[in-house]
Amino acid sequence: MIINMPFASLRAFEAVCRLSNFSAAAAELGVSQSAISQHVKVLEEWLGQDLLLRGARRSEPTLEGERLGRAISEGLGRLSDVCIDLRDRKRADRTIIISCLPGFAFTWLFPRLLRFDLAHPDLSISITTDTGQLPFSGTDADVGIRYGLGDNPGFHVERLMPERLFPVCAPALRDGAPGMATLSDLAHHTVLQDENLNFGASSPTWEYWAREAGVRLPEPIRTRRLGQSNLVIQAAIEGLGVALGREPLVVDALVAGKLVRPFPEIVSSPLSYWLVCRAGMLESAKVQVFMSWIKSEAASQPQIPGIAKQND
Fold it and tell me: Does residue 56 carry a pLDDT above 80?
């Protein structure tokens, strides 16, 4: 007898069961929360069983749900191993897949990849971007570049580079009326913020910069929140406001004169950029080449330009 099993619903239920949260499951699978809810409902109706005890913040499996979730997880794990093996056999051994945040990819990594291509024409780089909200799994990429505190248990982790924080803006914004001679002048401008810095007290926010620099931000202050770090930087380049520059993401624009530092205070960020991979990948020749190259690029990153006088 052939049973037409609702595989999409089974996968959605397994994610909810494992993460205990519909929103987290939706984020992992890249679908809406309502889609996850509908999949679970379909599965419960198909089986004629309640599988979850739904709560406001957490959803726990019933005894039947726990049994099913465990069986699905074991099955998906075996399928994943087979698929990874088949993918690796099919994929040319000369391709290196890198996972990183979109902002880091667009502003730091992409401009440097031409140098890698010229130095290593026998290798190719494939970039996959994600939000970084979930731990690096090592199933979809050879190497991850992660931003944070470096907490990736079970993987090889090494710091690629630290970062420093300082305000940046377009030259025209600094030099035009009403100007930006002192920190109090921020009250006349829009402060740009990245709304996806979800690191609690370790988030490199304007408040963190002011506290570490020993200065006081003017009140009230007009803010504009953007969803990605590269959007924050581009908005600053376009003269739409003043951004808190994170060194690796703005240093090239500073060197090119697209951005300037209106104030001298520089503080160390609590977060860094980390190279993450499965321990076994360190034996891969192509990964060794990439790791050596990117660490060399990080070490040779340009210095932060000094404060230029207005209208220079």
Answer: no
